[in-house]
Automatic annotation (TrEMBL):
Gene3D superfamilies: Tetracycline Repressor, domain 2. One of its GO terms (molecular function) is DNA-binding transcription factor activity. InterPro entries: Homeodomain-like_sf (IPR009057), HTH-type_TetR-like_transc_reg (IPR050109), HTH_TetR (IPR001647), Tet_transcr_reg_TetR-rel_C_sf (IPR036271). Keywords: DNA-binding, Transcription, Transcription regulation. Residues 36-55 bind DNA. Residues 13-73 form the HTH tetR-type domain. It comes from the Bacteria. This is AcrR family transcriptional regulator. It comes from Novispirillum itersonii (Aquaspirillum itersonii). The keyword Transcription regulation applies.
Length: 200
């Protein structure tokens, strides 16, 4: 996220951050589905119109929370790039950290997915990503440099392919957020992906 440059932008960013922090506290206390937009506005001490100008839905707030959480853990995840082991083990660690995050945020992640899908269907929708794709691309680039991953396809393209597989699995969260099943499915798609991504 770029640093706000004007007083007005800084004020808007401060309001945005306060709304997200307030909503996070309410979601943690009462559960995502039990909290209304009206409660968030009241707790953040902002007018409902102000709240809706920042976030049209609770799912949009969830998306902002997910992006902020992943951004905060990005330095740790980037450490996977040069961690001991193989590209396969690094990808397994990255996906396992995703499952553990979903376990801690079973109400939040489905809301994030709903927001992502709704925005994909809108021409001027929110196209901001969580940062997961950037980290995934770097892990694959390192694998290419080490000769573990085929290099006739760009790391960006491979990352996009793997993200689509990842997204397909995480859709399970919309109806059945079972971490054990997610972990099993992630292991399956990683095996499938790495077999096709082997050096040739």
């Amino acid at each position: 996220m770029s640093t706000p440059s004007t007083r007005r932008e800084r004020k808007r960013q401060a309001a945005h951050d306060e709304i997200v922090a307030t909503a996070a506290a309410l979601f943690a206390r009462d559960g995502f589905s039990a909290v209304t937009m009206e409660q968030i506005a009241a707790a953040a001490d902002v007018a409902k119109a102000t709240l809706y100008s920042h976030f049209p839905t609770r799912d949009a707030i969830a998306a902002a929370m997910v992006r902020a959480d992943i951004a905060a853990s990005e330095p740790e995840m980037l450490g996977l790039i040069t961690a001991p082991g193989t590209t396969a083990s690094r990808l397994e660690q990255l996906f396992d950290s995703s499952v553990r995050w979903i376990e801690r945020n079973t109400g939040l992640f489905p809301a994030y997915l709903r927001h992502r899908f709704s925005q994909m269907a809108t021409p001027d929708g929110d196209r901001r990503r969580s940062g997961f794709g950037i980290i995934l691309t770097k892990v694959l680039e390192h694998g290419q440099d080490n000769g573990e991953i085929r290099s006739d396809i760009s790391a960006e393209a491979l990352s996009e392919n793997l993200q689509m597989l990842f997204l397909g699995v995480t859709m399970r969260c919309l109806t059945d957020p079972d971490p054990a099943a997610l972990r099993s499915d992630f292991n399956r798609i990683l095996t499938l992906f790495l077999h096709g991504a082997a050096p040739r």
